[in-house]
Amino acid sequence: MLRSNLLRGASVGALMALSLSSIHSALAQESLPAIDIGAAAGPVRPTAQSARAEAEKTSYHPKSAMTALKTNTSIMETPVSVQVVPQQVLLDQQATTLARAVDNVSGVRSFDSSYIGGNDQFQIRGFTTSYVYTDGLRLQSGLPGTSSLINVEKVEVLKGPASILYGRADPGGIVNVVTKQPEAIPHYVIQQQIGSYSSYRTTLDATGPLTKDDTLLYRLTAEADLEHSFHETNYSRNYFVSPVVRWNIDAATQITFNLQYGRQAIPFDVGTFGFTKYDPLSLVFGVGPAAFLPRERAFNDPNSSMNVETVKYGYNFSHKFSEDWTLTNRFEGIVYHSDNYLVVPVGFAANSPTQLSRVAIANSGVRDSVNLNLDLTGRFETYGVEHSVLVGGDYLSNRAFNPFFGASKIRQSNIDYLFPIHSVTPTTLSQYNSFLPGWTSINREDWYGFYVQDQLKLPYNLFVLAGARYDRAITHSNAYDGNGEQLGNNSQRVTPRFGLLWRPIEEVSLYGSYLENFGSAGGLSGPAGPTQQILPSETAQQWEVGVKTELFDKRLTATFAYYNLIKQHVGVSDPDPTRAALGYRVATGEIRNRGVELDVAGEILPGWKVIGGYSYIDSIVAKDEGVVSDPLGNTVSFKGFTGFTPADVSRHMGNLFTTYELQDGDWKGLKFGGGVNARSKSYGDSLNSYHVPGYAIFNLLASYSWDLYGTKLTAQLNVENLADTRYYPTGNRGQFQIGVGTPRTFKGSIRMEF
């Protein structure tokens, strides 16, 4: 059951009910795009501007992005690298996960969410993040089952440190999901998808007015998804619904209420295991993943899954004081509950060369988060210099309660990886092991910040960006061993941001920027006990230079960037080998990532669209050292992982997806295309003792759209992993948690729009 604090969103839910009673009375007409934040509220009817926005819905080439500067600034005038995956790309690829969407952006690596309970995790510029932002607000990270693409308009990826506007974040960048908003013209979409492994997905998207004067608008999106995996034991269920109501109070003021409810059963599968050069068996099977096993092989049990229930609620308020000044206030909360039964391989079984040792853990958890944001944006001119000013503040509160081990049963069992027998319950029960005592984790994070930013437009097409932010973050955690001891981390920091952009001609922009980052706490210093502490917060700095250009009559944008990104206070093993063996960690590590990126998106010829990119990342542990004493008492230095490549970072990554649609003739509406996602090998651990091989995955698309009695019908077929390549999307979770990529799959759909 969800916690009682769900009542905080009860008033929102009452407004949502208005939409459900009005869908059937709406008239079927052409769709109209949502109102941009900061634009004038009130009735929305077709105009030349809205027609251009409607055309952009089918484009691969968005002109602007909100994520980089929190203002609707042209990408060509933004002195950082920001990429957009628009709605049409998601439709053409039949993307159903956020991981699939971000695979279209260079330097971004997604981790297959079918592993580790469906968490959305990404690697941007070589640094991993599990934070996902929704309309610019971040909630608790690492929550499986909280994302669906049915209510997503587009996905924006900001590369590089984002602390100046979004507070504590990982320095590689952020993934921001922009949701669909209510529209004044009724529009309905129903889609049925059927795919390999008995996959069925039904979706609904409806929008329109609730009142004749367009004072109240609604949007309702819903999804039912049932799927069996290629793995022996995995299945998933996903039910999602999201009503949204916008109230146009007057021509200058509007407020939008949103509610999301999701219920999922998510398989918990850690994938396969690997042999390293230190294992005798590697002489037979080679270094790396156990490639001799079938891809469908799983080492969990049929009921190893997470059952998740999620409620998100919030509002977005906007008021225009004048044509130049706008105040926006956003609020979002989440209540999250999960009941889990997790079966995890932890090593090779003793005295048995073909068996793995597993542990099974049953636990539950409750989390709730709230995020509040207030922004004031304005434009003015001084001495011929145009200013676009942003002043704002935000507050985030996370609470997590997780009874673990002590309130659960811990079971141990073995499974033969050559001839597995999947039992419902492991046979040997070992509850409250002496080395694994019961505990309850209670974690709390409170964080707030204030920021100011100015975009200056100077003569000769020069653009200057300057900003700063003050952050304070307070983290509390119990000591995990049930003794009631509290651990805390109280951090504060001021981070600057500078950027310069020159547009010598309309089609070319040259830019450079410097950014700093204030990240999360670096984890725990060691095992439970009186010396355990929360490590200091991570910090980072980045220099970036690049060029942006618009080609083919400004139908296609290309961005080339070079960056140097350094992250400090990375949690690493204690330099004293004895303490390291006991699990102690210190925050002295430093990782340096630098590289180049190329992104292209747009239309080459009428009907021929493309999105793609290439990235090169040179990643190295630049600092991981300390001073210890040898057995004779002499002081010696300890280099740790200095000079090693961090796990799961591929030096080369590339992606390309292109489509062509016939523009006239008898076969107008026929579309075909395809693409490739490729990456080079990466190391599977911090010692670089084994590697995960690189791969290239090819995909195909064919679709046909036609009108039938006022309804647009689209039949579509996608083939993913056309060559049936065996690949491993992730390997940095350890030797016994190497993900196995999905084999060749087919996905067909019928889509109705009216």
What does it look like?
With 754 residues, the chain is mainly beta. Helices cover 6% and strands 54% of the residues. The chain has seven helices and 40 strands. The strands form seven sheets. It has a 22-stranded antiparallel beta barrel. A hairpin with a 4-residue loop joins strand 18 (305-320) and strand 19 (325-348). The two termini are 38 Å apart. Mean pLDDT is 81; it is low at 1-49, 113-117, 277-287, 426-438, 479-483 and 627-631.
Keywords:
single chain, 754 residues, 22-stranded antiparallel beta barrel, globular, disordered N terminus
Q: What is the topological layout?
A:
Elements: H1 10-20, H2 48-57, E1 64-65, E2 73-74, E3 82-85, H3 87-92, H4 98-102, E4 108-110, E5 122-124, E6 127-129, E7 133-134, E8 137-138, E9 152-159, H5 163-166, E10 173-179, E11 187-195, E12 199-209, E13 216-228, E14 235-250, E15 253-267, E16 274-275, H6 282-285, E17 288-289, E18 305-320, E19 325-348, E20 355-382, E21 385-404, E22 410-416, E23 428-429, E24 439-458, E25 462-478, E26 486-505, E27 508-521, E28 537-551, E29 556-573, H7 577-581, E30 585-605, E31 608-623, E32 626-629, E33 635-638, E34 652-661, E35 670-679, E36 682-683, E37 691-692, E38 695-708, E39 711-720, E40 745-753
Parallel strand pairs: 7-10
Antiparallel strand pairs: 1-2, 3-9, 4-5, 5-6, 7-8, 9-10, 11-12, 11-40, 12-13, 13-14, 14-15, 15-18, 16-17, 18-19, 19-20, 20-21, 20-22, 21-24, 22-23, 24-25, 25-26, 26-27, 27-28, 28-29, 29-30, 30-31, 31-34, 32-33, 34-35, 35-38, 36-37, 38-39, 39-40
